[in-house]
C-alpha cells in the first residue's frame, strides 16, 4: 500500500469539496499555523509549535505510509472561486496489520473549518477506503477513541456511523481522562 492515495469528497450546499491526500513537507507551514489553536492543542497527542516540530510530524506520517501501518491524510478544502486548497484537517488510519481484525481511526479539524462537516465527511471517506483496501487482509472493524469530555468528537463518531461501545479508563499521559470507544464494523 505504498502507492499514493488521494480521496475526493464532493462539496455539499454548506461545505467545500475535500481532498484527502498523504501529508507533504509543503504542508508544514499550514500545519504549524492551525496547530496554534488552543482547542486543537487540548485534544492533540503531540504539540506542533514550530517548523521543526511540523517537519518531524509530517515525516512521521510519511514513515507510516512507507511502513504500511499508519495512513495519515491531510484534509484540504477547496474554497469556492479559488484554485488553491486550504488545510482544514487530518484523518488517520493507524495500527493496520495483516490478519489483525481491528484498526484505529483519528481526526482533527482546523479551527477555521469547524462546523462545516469536515470531520464526518473526511472520516466517512477514510472509513470506506480502509474497508476497501484492507478487508481482504482481515480488517473487520475500525475503532475511534476520544476523551469523554470531547463532545464534538462524539458527534463526529455518531454522524459517521461509529456506534458507542464502552467507556475506557484513563491511561496517562496519552489519555489523561476516561475515553469513549466507538466502533464501526465492515458490515455496517
List the total number of helices.
5
Average of pLDDT: 90
Principal-axes shape call: globular
Largest sheet: 8 strands, mixed
- Give the helix/strand class: alpha+beta
**Strand elements, count:** 8
Helical content (DSSP H or I, runs of 4+): 25-40%
Main sheet: which strands, in order across? Answer: 1-2-3-4-5-6-8-7
State the distance separating the first and last CA atoms: 24 Å
In terms of DSSP E residues, the strand content is 25-35%
Q: Mind telling me the C-alpha Rg?
A: 16 Å
Succession of helices and strands: EEHHHEEEHEHEE
Poorly predicted tracts of residues: none
Give me the secondary-structure topology:
Elements lengths: L6 E3 L7 E6 L5 H7 L3 H6 L7 H17 L2 E9 L6 E10 L7 E8 L8 H17 L6 E7 L3 H9 L3 E6 L10 E7 L3
Parallel strand pairs: 5-6
Antiparallel strand pairs: 1-2, 2-3, 3-4, 4-5, 6-8, 7-8
Please characterize this protein's 3D structure.
There is one protein chain. By secondary structure, the chain is an alpha+beta fold. It contains 5 helices and 8 strands; from the N terminus they run E-E-H-H-H-E-E-E-H-E-H-E-E. Strands 1-2-3-4-5-6-8-7 form an 8-stranded mixed sheet, sandwiched between helices. The chain is globular and about 40 Å long.
Amino acid at each position: 500500500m505504498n502507492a499514493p492515495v488521494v480521496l475526493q469528497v464532493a462539496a455539499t450546499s454548506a461545505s467545500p469539496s475535500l481532498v484527502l491526500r498523504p501529508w507533504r513537507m509543503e504542508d508544514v507551514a499550514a500545519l504549524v499555523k492551525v496547530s496554534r489553536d488552543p482547542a486543537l492543542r487540548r485534544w492533540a497527542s503531540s504539540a506542533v509549535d514550530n517548523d521543526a516540530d511540523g517537519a518531524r510530524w509530517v515525516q512521521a506520517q510519511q514513515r507510516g505510509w512507507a511502513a504500511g501501518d499508519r495512513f495519515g491524510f491531510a484534509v484540504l478544502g477547496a474554497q469556492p472561486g479559488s484554485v488553491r486548497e486550504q488545510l482544514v484537517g487530518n484523518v488517520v488510519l493507524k495500527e493496520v496489520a495483516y490478519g489483525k481484525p481491528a484498526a484505529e481511526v483519528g481526526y482533527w479539524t482546523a479551527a477555521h473549518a469547524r462546523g462545516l462537516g469536515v470531520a464526518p465527511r473526511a472520516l466517512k471517506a477514510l472509513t470506506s477506503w480502509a474497508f476497501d483496501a484492507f478487508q481482504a487482509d482481515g480488517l473487520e472493524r475500525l475503532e475511534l477513541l476520544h476523551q469523554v469530555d470531547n463532545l464534538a468528537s462524539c458527534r463526529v463518531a455518531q454522524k459517521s456511523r461509529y456506534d458507542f461501545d464502552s467507556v475506557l479508563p484513563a491511561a496517562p499521559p496519552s489519555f489523561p481522562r476516561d475515553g469513549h470507544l466507538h466502533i464501526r464494523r465492515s458490515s455496517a
